[in-house]
Design brief:
By secondary structure, this protein is α/β, with parallel strands linked by helices. The chain has helices spanning 25-44, 78-91, 108-117, 138-145, 155-163, 181-185, 220-230, 248-257, 272-281, 296-303, 316-319, 334-345, 348-365, 368-383, and strands at residues 13-17, 48-52, 58-64, 67-73, 98-102, 121-126, 149-152, 172-174, 203-208, 237-242, 264-267, 284-287, 308-311, 326-329. It contains 14 helices and 14 strands. Helix 5 links the parallel strand 7 and strand 8 (172-174).
């Protein structure tokens, strides 16, 4: 066990998060990061404080990965959030390296304010995807450029941080997100998982996402049209789309207009076990998204040994290896999407081989402990001024 203040050990760690209780890939990445911070700080006796901008006001206990984390929420009150962060920075040690981990590029700005109050702090900023694929506003950009290290979950996002945000490559580190070990444990006995009552029988394409008007790049429209085109060649073909969002009504109208409403099933507000049951009972997972910075849902599908179909864009090629654990298609190519799905449903052995390879890949490269150890090493390197 390392005592605070020793070489390579932060004097204090403060975590700034946007939303630890919400739904979505960024929120899930935040939770796993918070747990990794907590486990590391506990084992190394590092003082740790966590605050979250968008979660309800007050103290909360986050239960994740067999851990309990206490944090404070600020109900989207940016002023109170920043004042709290500044107070924590003011009270932190001024000699030795304390660390701010800002779990979103927009939080680099309050982190930079904290550094002005206490120059002993160094900053690690986590990027996720589309939010850094276009140039940030001048203030946010300057704050991001002042960070000690900028993390990216995929090679594509790392390149965008360098090319679009003009961050030196020496400051950028790729740190892939892990799969929640609690979710991974659900793969041990899929027969015990509670399947949602509205889950159909037949040949099942599963997709999971947030169906929001601002995120139509996820490709739900393309999957609905693919089902329309394939229903005559693949009997009893169904699409199960899991997720909530303000675009659901439009998608439902699209399915009705294509006369496939009976083949498209929108499932909302599922528990983790119900979601896991959907993966277990699906034949293929597909998400033809052109805007994924990483794609945790691909890891979830792969954990259940399902072949995956994704777009050769963004962070997806880091996870999906064409012909190895899934099929990659060009962006916005409806014909190639339909061909990939048809190929998988007509070749059971291909589905089996791709699925088994994906399951092995998840368990080898995307374990939570691998992520936690990498984050711990990064904290120690930053605290000791190692690159």
């Amino acid at each position: 066990m390392s005592a605070p203040g020793r070489v390579g050990c932060p004097r204090k760690v403060i975590g700034l998060f946007t939303d630890l209780l919400g739904i979505g890939g960024v929120q899930e990445a935040g939770r796993l990061t918070a747990v990794a911070l907590s486990k590391t700080a506990s084992s190394r006796s590092w003082p740790l404080e966590i605050i979250s901008l968008n979660d309800p006001s007050g103290e909360h206990v986050l239960r994740c990965c067999d851990s309990e984390i206490t944090f404070s929420g600020f109900a989207r009150d940016k002023t109170r959030f920043v004042l709290s962060a500044l107070g924590k920075a003011f009270l932190a040690p001024r000699n030795g390296a304390s660390i701010i981990l800002a779990a979103h590029p927009h939080l680099a700005l309050p982190a930079s304010f904290m550094q002005r109050v206490n120059p002993g702090f160094k900053t690690i900023v986590m990027a996720h995807g589309v939010e850094v694929w276009t140039r940030l506003s001048p203030r946010r950009l300057r704050a991001l450029q002042k960070a000690t290290v900028v993390l990216a979950p995929s090679n594509y996002t790392a390149r965008k941080i360098a090319d679009v945000q003009a961050i030196p490559a020496t400051k950028i580190k790729r740190l892939p997100w892990p799969l929640d070990p609690g979710f991974l444990s659900l793969t041990r006995d899929p027969s015990e998982l509670p399947l949602p009552p509205d889950f159909p029988r037949g040949h099942i394409i599963l997709t999971v996402g947030r169906w929001a008007a601002a995120e139509r790049y996820k490709g739900a429209d393309a999957l609905i049209l693919a089902v329309d085109g394939l229903r005559t060649t693949i009997p009893e073909l169904h699409l199960v789309a899991v997720g909530n969002g303000d675009d659901l009504l439009r998608l439902q109208k699209l399915a009705a207009g294509q006369r496939v409403a009976d083949r498209i099933h929108f499932l909302e507000n599922l528990s983790q076990k119900e979601l896991a049951a959907c993966y277990a009972h699906a034949d293929v997972f597909a998400l033809p998204s052109t805007g994924e910075g990483f794609g945790l849902v691909f890891l979830e599908a792969m954990a259940f040994a399902k072949p995956v179909v994704g777009v050769d864009a963004g962070g997806i090629p880091d996870l999906v290896r064409d012909g190895v654990n899934g099929l990659l298609i060009p962006p916005n190519d409806a014909e190639r999407l339909a061909q990939a799905l048809e190929r998988l449903f007509h070749d059971e052995m291909l589905r089996k081989n791709l699925g088994e390879c994906g399951a092995s890949l998840v368990r080898r490269d995307y374990q939570f402990e691998v992520f936690r150890q990498s984050l711990e090493q990064l904290l120690c390197d930053v605290a000791s001024d190692r690159p």
